[in-house]
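Researcher: Structure prediction, please.
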Amino acid sequence: MPKKAKKKTVVRREYTRADVKELRAHSKAKTPVVQIAKLTKRSVGSLRQKALKLGIRLGHRR
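Model: Predicted structure follows.
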């Protein structure tokens, strides 16, 4: 019988003013969302939701 995989625990961290400032800078620089996620150690979904609330765009590669 195979062992059950442990569920990942959700760790919630609030966005600080510095985090928001960094997010805005990445938005202006048009940094890919995946790269921002690795740098900030946050999920892509989390970053997209925060950007939506702030009214900024993320990952716009046109």
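Model: The chain has a mean pLDDT of 90.
Researcher: Thanks, that helps.
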